[in-house]
Amino acid sequence: MFRPTAFLLAISMVFLGLLSAVSAAAIPQENDLIALGQTFQTLREIQGHFDGAAFNPVVDAPNGEKHQVMQKLYEAYGKPGVDSAEIVATMGPSDEIPDEILAQLRRRAPRVSPPANFKYIVYKWRGFHDYIWFRVNMKNDKVQGSEFYAAYE
């Protein structure tokens, strides 16, 4: 006996599987940081919900293409000791950091003796709702700390 609901469900599952396979194929592999960086720089130009445009699953959705690319880049560059010049060469210049975000980052910075000067490199995923930050020691330009911050709202 033919069941239209079951048939439509099966077709939908196949379509979604093919769609996710095509999307995943477009994302460069973790070891190709140059391609990941180029993909990220292209994606960061696309306007989404957090930029005042309509919701765009490519840049706004959890596990969307931009999110996946940023996760891979964060895995590669989020470790202490990474040269900040590598990050900027791959991901492009840091997004401008609003004063209130910079103040939050500075409050969370470790207190060290003697005091160290830090700068921050920040890349937005969904505006300053979710973003990656790198705390860079200005004495040696190496990453000292980092986080893929998510508001979870």
TrEMBL record:
| Record keyword Signal present | yes
Q: Which keywords does this Swiss-Prot/TrEMBL entry list?
A: Signal
- The positions making up the signal sequence are 1-24
Q: Domain of life of the organism in this record?
A: Eukaryota
Q: What is this protein called?
A: Uncharacterized protein
**Organism, as annotated:** Podila verticillata NRRL 6337
